[in-house]
Amino acid sequence: MKREKMEYRLKKALDPQRYAHTLGVERCAREMAQRFGEDEEKAALAGLLHDCAKCMTLSQMQKAAGGEIADPLMRESKALLHALAGRCVAKNVYGVQDEDVLNAIRWHTTGHAGMTKLEKIVYLADMIEPNRKAYPGVEALRVLCRHDLDLAMHQALRMSRDHVDAQGKALHPDTLAALEDYEAERAKP
Ligand SMILES: [Fe+2]
Ligand SMILES: [Fe+2]
Questions:
Q1: In sequence order, which residues have a C-beta less than 8 Å from that of residue 60 and are 6 or more positions away?
Q2: Domains and their CATH numbers in the chain
């Protein structure tokens, strides 16, 4: 699908705030790809489409995710499920074939152990893009994102854990696994 058509569809599928966020993530992901030696076009495309399913209802998301059945925690959470649904919508509606791009969309909410560079970039761009409402720690995270992808990722995962803790919710096992990956790395002599 051509870029203009994607924009047109996204604008219809998302509320104006979410659409502005989407463009912010696209730009931010492209910049980070440049900085860290990743494919710019893939990063920009994944950024543009990462929230393409975000404004659906839970049952629409469940339907869109179709055969790719989510675990129980994800299945009942719009905040988590829109990533899996988004992967399917990006593929089936926006015609994205590239598995790297689809995976970056798939993993942008939870992360997972052993993330690719592209997945990290989209995960982080989502957290630091300039249209996002400010939250504690975002400025420090932006600085890390300019210098070190893995330090930034470790910090972002800790912030996600603390955020979920503060809400009294359960941390998704994939996020825990991603975090443990980094903690284990740090514990090495
Ligand atoms: Fe999202
Ligand atoms: Fe997002």
A1: 53, 85
A2: 3-187 (1.10.3210.10)
pLDDT, one tens digit per residue, over 162-175 is 999 999 999 999 99
Residue whose tokens read 């339907």: 63
pLDDT tens digits along 83-122? 999 999 999 999 999 999 999 999 999 999 999 999 999 9
Say what angle helices 16-36 and 40-49 make with each other, to 10 degrees: 160
Residues in the chain predicted with pLDDT less than 70, given as ranges, are 189
CA of 40 to the centre of ligand 1 (A): 20
- The ligand that comes nearest to the alpha carbon of residue 131 is 2
187: CA distance to ligand 1 center in Å? 31
Q: How far is the CA of 174 from the centre of ligand 2 (A)?
A: 18
Residue 4, both tokens: 């203009």
Under 8 Å between Cβ of 34 and 142: no
Q: From ligand 1's centre to the CA of 184, what distance in Å?
A: 27
Rounded to the nearest angstrom, the distance between the alpha carbon of 86 and the centre of ligand 1 is: 9
- The 3-state DSSP class for residue 70 equals coil
Query: What secondary structure letter does DSSP report for 50?
Result: T
Residue carrying the six token digits 């696994």 = 177
Q: Identify whether the C-beta of residue 101 lies closer than 8 Å to the C-beta of residue 72.
A: no
What pTM, to 2 d.p., does this model score?
Answer: 0.96
